[in-house]
Amino acid sequence: MEYTAMDQYWIWLSSVEGIGPKRFYQLLSLYEDARQVWDALGGVLVPPDMQIIGQAALNNLREARDEGAFYRLFDRLERSGARAVTRLSEDYPAPLTGIYDPPPTLYVRGECPLTGERMLAVVGSRRCTRDGQRAAREFAKGLAENGVCVVSGMARGIDSHAHRGALDGGGHTIAVLGCGVDVVYPPENEGLMREILDSGGTVVSEFFPGTPPNPGNFPARNRIISGLSRGTLLVEGAKASGAMITVNLALEQGRDVFAIPGGIYSPLSDAPNRMILEGAYPVVCHWDILEHYRWASRPGENAAKKCPPPELDADEEAVVAPLREQAMSFDELAAATGFPASRLNSHLTMLELRGIIEKVPGGLYRSYR
Asked: pLDDT at residue 302 above 70?
């Protein structure tokens, strides 16, 4: 890909280790553009005002001011398969320009535009429950089916299920990484990243290709997840969940926050429930979000008839009815139904094979239909 001279110096400056957004913009406040920073470093003595960025970052800058290193930088960028989008570019997402410390440069793989009217972040705990996984996938699928681009961080747990749900819905999804866009993290998401790209989605990062997933990168990338999006949906999270970083950033950025309510005794429902108490929009299905933005209207009763509930005989209904309310153990079901063990076991096996009930952690059964 070809870049203007100004873009090239901008990419060079933003790629230097230790020159994060804060120091990048400090330098631009002293010099008119990134080219002048390069020129200023060419003298025998470094200008005293450049000391504001600290000695370590200054040493890195002086080391990076080398024509050979400059050209190798762009060779690495090309070989990574990524393209750089600077704030000088028309392709830079406008919503990010108004956030705190907007990333000077974004590195992008994929074809999905980084700006759009219908973009929503879906975040939550890495250690999510089965209900949380299901909610993330179903919400993301429903949103994607109605033209919403789902934005998340491709982390384990809720993020991965949100991306998967968007793919299931035949829509686009954007993964914002805390490492280079040519680095797969977590490693088990290699297939998911490939599917995102193959489906027309996008992988984006402010970190130069090849950057490893250092722990400090992830809180920083969260401001991009919320900043790109019209609103942020919190699926699950404990009180001190990392997902709350994204939620708080969304609030600081003036974005909407939605939360899925959960049981008061579930630790992973603590963050969503508290956010609702503090003013977040409670949602129980994707239509609540779509109607909030007037992106789509909820189907009427006729549409619901296209997916009728499963046909159950009297014994099967006796087993399934209590499981719709809460998860129960075999012994609890036996007490509730009055069925002998052999009869109950037969019903549970057939209902599980039909996908009407499922086993959840703790040896419990649950029905969602």
From this structure: no
Q: What type of residue sits at position 34?
A: A
Per-residue pLDDT tens over the stretch 162-190: 999 999 999 999 999 999 999 999 999 99
Q: 119-303: what CATH class? A: alpha beta
- Least Cα distance to 144 among 161, 128, 127, 156 occurs for 161
Cα–Cα distance, 314 to 338 (Å, whole number)? 13
Query: What is the rounded distance in angstroms from the CA atom of residue 82 to the CA atom of residue 77?
Result: 6
Question: Does the fold of domain 314-367 match that of domain 119-303?
Answer: no
Look up the pTM and report it: 0.84
Q: Beta partners for 122? A: 233
The one-letter code for the residue type at 151 is V
Q: 15 to each of 31, 43, 209, how far by Cα in Å?
A: 17, 21, 9
Would you say 128 and 157 are in contact if contact means Cβ atoms under 8 Å apart?
yes
pLDDT tens figures, 88-111: 999 999 999 999 999 999 999 998
314-367 is classed CATH 3.40.50.10330: no
User: Which residue matches tokens 């959840």?
Assistant: 360
The residue length of the chain stands at 369
